Amino acid sequence: MLTTLAIQNYRSLRDLVLPLSQLTVIVGANGTGKSSLYRALRLLADAGRNGAVAALAGEGGLPSTLWAGPETMSRAVREGRAPVQPLRRTKSVGLRLGYSGDEFGYALDFGLPIPSETAFNLDPEYKRECVWHGPVLRPSALLADRSGTRVRIRDEAGSWIESGHSIALTDSMLGEFADPRLCPELLIVRDRVRGWRFYDHFRTDADAPARQSRIGTRTWALDHDGGDLAAALRTIQESTDADALATAIDDAFPGSSIEVTAADGRFDLRFHQHGLLRPLSAAELSDGTLRYLLWAAALLSPRPPELLVLNEPETSLHPDLLPALAALITAAAKKTQLLVVSHSQLLVRFLEDASVLELEKDFGATVVAGPGRLDQPSWHWPKR
């Protein structure tokens, strides 16, 4: 299980270290940094697929994502006796992301390249990457250490081994050196990070993928766009969670049930509702009903990931559906670690055994409301 998430210099997340539990819920007013936290976690997962540089480019490049406030905030500025001075960086530019857990920790440090005759001077580079054993980075706990193009790995005897060849500054060592012969722990970390599952706002418009009839196969995990909804629900129905799915639908829509038909490999969803003479197709369902079925398919996956991240699952759902959604989330948290970003205090109220972290702004920077800085988990960034 992940126990700590650390982010530095990503948008409003100037220096954030969060404790994570089996079910962590992130709440806060608009503009406090909830969406930035979700995107930062996705960016961290992209590193395991060697896709973090491309993901940053899609956000406008490293300069667009860096903390835009001052490096330090004087007491006079905080008390309103002096204006905020224009940004002048005196330290090296760095966007840092990391996590630690019961077994391993991982951190990366992105920076800008040394200017040269190239059109790619805004491409972020890996300045430092580390994998360690245990919850806190310590020199003695390091298992794999990347500095620039150089990677070294600790062998079974505890001695450092040089990789023997350099790594491109835009590539992650998770993708390039995850070899069980060199460092099996690096392979474990990479596969776990790649296995994290993210669900954002599902489409429910008339042309939404979930409303279409599609050729399907056995689907252990709902796709991010929900296009394989019918196949995913049928897979759940043929698994040990069939009763849980039936209960989840009856909790939300009393007396209702679903049927998934398959003909010539094409899967179609039928929604049976009390009082109607025929079932409704996916194309006929209301946005709220379809969205709830999508969340049910995501949360009842027969093969849950190590970490499941949901972004505002309450969106477009009637308040009457939130108790049933909360029950799904609570049940899923017994099988996998969940992080939920939510605007809904009502949903949070219905969740059981959830650790709730409220975000707020402090002179433009995202902080956790309530506990002071000394209450945050211990965390050390690798130095360049």
TrEMBL record:
GO terms for biological process: DNA synthesis involved in DNA repair; double-strand break repair; SOS response. PANTHER family: DNA REPLICATION AND REPAIR PROTEIN RECF, SLR1056 PROTEIN. It holds the Pfam family AAA_21. Keywords: DNA damage, SOS response. It comes from Amycolatopsis echigonensis. Residues 23-348 form the ATPase AAA-type core domain. This is ATPase. The keyword Acyltransferase does not apply. The keyword DNA damage applies. One of its GO terms (molecular function) is ATP hydrolysis activity.
